[in-house]
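Milestone 3.1: sequence recovery, worked example.
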């Protein structure tokens, strides 16, 4: 049985509420004049100071949506100061990331400048996005991530 803390439930509620407000802009987006496909090359940094905990998942093929071979997953990532979430792609794994605590920088393949994300920001990760993240601050960063993955053995953050 999966148990959630009040803080985790609150974060999930915020994510669901933010998604429901379709007219709301996502904070921490790449400035329009800095957006360009494949402007940043892939880096081979390893994960550092990151814990990735799956809080729950749903096999979408067994739901009325009947999306074969897909899983809706909800996770908590904790990134220590200096921590790195390594390069990964969202070509086949859309996600929403809610920054619950701290400030973190994203280095996206389609943005020529780092994107700063602060507590309360919601980041949409869609096809065409590959990136890595780094906590440059002196405080721990907490992210809640909802994603739809195809391969249950996919361990990419």
């Amino acid at each position: 049985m999966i148990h959630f803390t009040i803080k985790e439930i609150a974060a999930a509620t915020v994510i669901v509420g933010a998604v429901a407000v379709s007219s709301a802009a996502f904070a921490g987006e790449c400035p329009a004049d800095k957006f360009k496909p494949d402007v940043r090359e892939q880096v081979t940094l390893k994960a550092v100071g990151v814990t990735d905990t799956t809080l729950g998942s749903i096999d979408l093929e067994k739901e009325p949506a009947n999306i074969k071979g897909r899983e809706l997953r909800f996770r908590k990532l904790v990134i220590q100061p200096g921590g790195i979430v390594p390069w990964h792609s969202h070509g086949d794994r859309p996600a929403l990331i809610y920054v619950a605590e701290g400030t973190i920088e994203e280095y996206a393949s389609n943005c020529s400048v780092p994107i700063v994300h602060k507590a309360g920001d919601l980041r949409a990760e869609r096809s065409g996005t590959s990136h890595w993240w780094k906590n440059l601050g002196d405080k721990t960063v907490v992210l809640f991530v909802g994603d739809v993955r195809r391969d249950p053995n996919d361990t990419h953050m």
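The chain has a mean pLDDT of 82. The beta strands are 48-59, 71-89, 95-101, 103-108, 115-118, 122-125, 130-134, 141-149.
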